Each structure stands twice: as structure tokens, then as C-alpha cells.
Recover the amino acids of this structure.
């Protein structure tokens, strides 16, 4: 499928989910089929199921009534930025079906933190916890990033059950530098909030950089880590997809499974299991999810696996 087509398909899916979400009998029927799951409490929040929708699928929270009906026990909206922004020029989303992978360089296309806050206010309470992923606006220089994040945090604080501090997207220049000790420390010091704050990390950090980051996060009393974001690596692509693999952006899906699991394992070891982890990256089967949970994750999230396998995957993991 071509780059432009992949994004059109994504928009169609999102539009359909948004419409389904407005039909209460449909939502109730779907929930009966997909909804059964085992609840758990993590960082003080009660989750009706352990499988969440990862950030980026519903950046502006357009289909929030639909996702729980497909069996998701929580939803992470965003990444949103303080300033509304169009993201990178299209095409910017590519499917690599032989590899069950996706490459994206969306660049935080979103309607901005204030618009999301307004939509969430109008929507009222949801059936599942809502995570809100915040990132840096493109127009904001990296040395002014802290205020940009803080503005989004303040606007969305009334609606978030947790915040994900996104310092790991490869598609915003300079963003991943915020994972470095000094920058991260400064950012986390400024992000004071009663809402649980989680940090989402890149799979491309070295093991020692992950150790250092975990230490900074623990020092600042973060509620947990989300591991991982997309990778810049192109290892593990099927031969048919190698040419497309030359596209700039973050790779997700099957090729990420092993590294994401490795990062979750490492983080759990570094923290002796004391810091909750949301495991994400290449979960395409119930076994993948089980391995993440066994490695120390308390919750998991799906994006690319959901694209290729559909809501049946959420149901299968919930039942496993
Ligand atoms: C099209 C696309 C857009 C994404 N946008 C975001 C985003 O805005 N913020 C974020 O933290 N992660 C974003 N991600 C990363 C996912 O949340 C997830 O961490 C990553 O894709 C690995 O999981 P997966 O292999 O199940 O897709 C995006 C991923 C894709 C494929």
C-alpha cells in the first residue's frame, strides 16, 4: 500500500470508530463481545483491562467512546502539543505488510492541547482511564521545551488519569535529547502535578543510557515508564520491505517485538520491579503480551498489531 493510502486508511478507520462510538446499542453489543477482561490497579489507577491503545492512533481523542467497546482497558490520546500543528508533509505513513510493520514520520500532527481539553470536557467521564501524551511543539525551540510541556500539562490536568511525557518520538528535531540526564531532570522538575506522570522512552537508547534515565525518573518520583516508542533501526524487515525501509521515520510492529521486550526487561531489572511499566512495541499475539507482562510490565499497549490483526487481538489478549 502506498504512503498516502496508508494514512487515508487510517483516517477512515478512525472516522468509522468515531461514528460507532456515537451509537449506544452498537457500543453495548461490541462491549459484550470484546469487553471481558481482568481489572488491575497500577500507580493508584484502576484499569478494567491490561490492554491499552497506544499513543498516536487517536491523537485528538476523536473516537473515545469506541475504544473501550473494542476491549481496550485504557486509551492514551496524543501526542498533543501546546500549539496546534499540521505535522510533516504527506506521505508520512507507510505500511510494510510482509514485515507486519509501519514506518511513520507524522511529526505530531494535532489540534493542540486546548482543543483536546475542550473535547474532553464536552465528552464527560469515560469508561476507562485516559492517558494523555504530551510533546513539544515544532515551533518551540528545544531550550524552551519545558514551558511548552507545562502549558499542555496545565490545560489537560483536569481530564488525564495519567500523563505520558513523550521524549522519544524520532520525528521532532531535538526531542529525544530530552532523555539526557540534565534535560530530563529539568523537565521533570517543572512537571509538577497530582496526576501520575509516566515517561515514554525510545528503544534506541543504549542499555547504560536506559539505566541512567531510569535513575533520573526514580529520583523525580515518576509513576512509571512506557517502553517503547518506535525505532530508527531497520533490522528485521522482510526482503520485500527493505526498499520501503529507506523511508525516514520510526519503525513499529513485528521488527520491534524483541527490542521492546528487552527494554522492558532491563527497566524492570534496574528498578527491582518497583516502577510500574507499560510495555509497548510489536505486540501482535497473546504470547507477545504475556511475555511483556512476565518481563515486568503491569500493562501493555497496542498500535501496529491492532492495525494488522484488528480488535480480535485485544479480545484474545484479554482472554489469555
Ligand atoms: C502512525 C503512528 C503514530 C504514532 N504516534 C505516536 C505519538 O504521537 N506519540 C507516541 O508516544 N507514540 C506514537 N507512536 C508510537 C506508538 O505509540 C508505539 O509506541 C509504537 O508504535 C510501538 O508499538 P507498536 O509496535 O504496537 O506499534 C506512533 C506509532 C505509529 C505507528
Amino acid at each position: 500500500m502506498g504512503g498516502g493510502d496508508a494514512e487515508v486508511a487510517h483516517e477512515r478507520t478512525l472516522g468509522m470508530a468515531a461514528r460507532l462510538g456515537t451509537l449506544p446499542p452498537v457500543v453495548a453489543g461490541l462491549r459484550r463481545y470484546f469487553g471481558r477482561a481482568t481489572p488491575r490497579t497500577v500507580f493508584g489507577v484502576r484499569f478494567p483491562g491490561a490492554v491499552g491503545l497506544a499513543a498516536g492512533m487517536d491523537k485528538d481523542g476523536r473516537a473515545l467512546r469506541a475504544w473501550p467497546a473494542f476491549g481496550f482497558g485504557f486509551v492514551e490520546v496524543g501526542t498533543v502539543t501546546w500549539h496546534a500543528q499540521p505535522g510533516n508533509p504527506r506521505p508520512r505513513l507507510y505500511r510494510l505488510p510482509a514485515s507486519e510493520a509501519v514506518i511513520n514520520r507524522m511529526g505530531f500532527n494535532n489540534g493542540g492541547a486546548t482543543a483536546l481539553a475542550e473535547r474532553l470536557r464536552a465528552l464527560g467521564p469515560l469508561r476507562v482511564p485516559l492517558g494523555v501524551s504530551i510533546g513539544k511543539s515544532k515551533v518551540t525551540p528545544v531550550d524552551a521545551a519545558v514551558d511548552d510541556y507545562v502549558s499542555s500539562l496545565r490545560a489537560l490536568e483536569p481530564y488525564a488519569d495519567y500523563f505520558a511525557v513523550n521524549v522519544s518520538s524520532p520525528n521532532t528535531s531535538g526531542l529525544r535529547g530530552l532523555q539526557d540526564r540534565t534535560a530530563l531532570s529539568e523537565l521533570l522538575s517543572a512537571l509538577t502535578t497530582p496526576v501520575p506522570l509516566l515517561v515514554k522512552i525510545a528503544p534506541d537508547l543504549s542499555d547504560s543510557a536506559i539505566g541512567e534515565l531510569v535513575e533520573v525518573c526514580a529520583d523525580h518520583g515518576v509513576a512509571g515508564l512506557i517502553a517503547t516508542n518506535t525505532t530508527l533501526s531497520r533490522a528485521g524487515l522482510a526482503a520485500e520491505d527493505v526498499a520501503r525501509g529507506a523511508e525516514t521515520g520510526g519503525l513499529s510492529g513485528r521488527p520491534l517485538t524483541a527490542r521492546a521486550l528487552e527494554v522492558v526487561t532491563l527497566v524492570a531489572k534496574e528498578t527491582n520491579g518497583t516502577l510500574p511499566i507499560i510495555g509497548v512495541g510489536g505486540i501482535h499475539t497473546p504470547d507477545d503480551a504475556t511475555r511483556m507482562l512476565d518481563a515486568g510490565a503491569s500493562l501493555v499497549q497496542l498500535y501496529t498489531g491492532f492495525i494488522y490483526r484488528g480488535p480480535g487481538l485485544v479480545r484474545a489478549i484479554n482472554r489469555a
In short: The pocket of flavin mononucleotide is lined by residues 54-56, 59, 78-79, 93, 102, 104, 106, 108, 133, 166, 169, 200, 229-230, 252-253, 256, 280-283, 302-305 (CB under 6 Å). The chain has a mean pLDDT of 94.
